[in-house]
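Bench notes, afternoon.
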Amino acid sequence: MHVGLNCPEESNRRSLMPGALLLDFDGVLVQTQEAWLNTMNAVAQQRGTPPIDRAHFLETWGQSVEADAALFFQGANPAEIGRQYTDVFAEFVGLVRIEPHAKHLFDSCRQSGLPTAIVTNAPLELVDTLAHHFGLKPIAMCAPSKGVGPKPAPDLLIKACDKTGVDCCKAWFVGDTSNDRAAAKAACTHFVGYGTPGDSRISTLAELIDQLFHGQ
């Protein structure tokens, strides 16, 4: 497995069809910013820490629970913050919107035999619940755990490739943040930027479906 060093050139490691399709969750498959902003401020209120304004929230969008704990919750235990997130998020799940074509993408991948994995910095229990709610069925879901660091480290992508049985340099990773981009680069994985610069770029999941299955 190629990880960071001795990567093939991009022109060589990108093929017409990836060996596996890895996808970030928040901001790619579902839109959760409003739900997360409300969740984080509810947790801040519970803990007696300052409220989180929208601008600061957006500046740090996509960072890990560990980073949230250090920045917003006065260095609280990340595991405790993660549990609070999972408990409180349920109150705001009605604000979550699935991306158009997300379910179609997973259905098309499954029908074609293309392995898929969700790669997220969010708490796994929460993401698993939302994915099930919206009918998204990846082969694997990967979130930070003991010994597996959050993005921008490559750990989650490496784990996802292990679970799908594909070399990192033969996978594609779809993400929307600089942390996603950095993780893909470190893992030597082709980065498809969702509304953001990447090795290639898309604006909608419909574009990705066309690229993968319709040769466009």
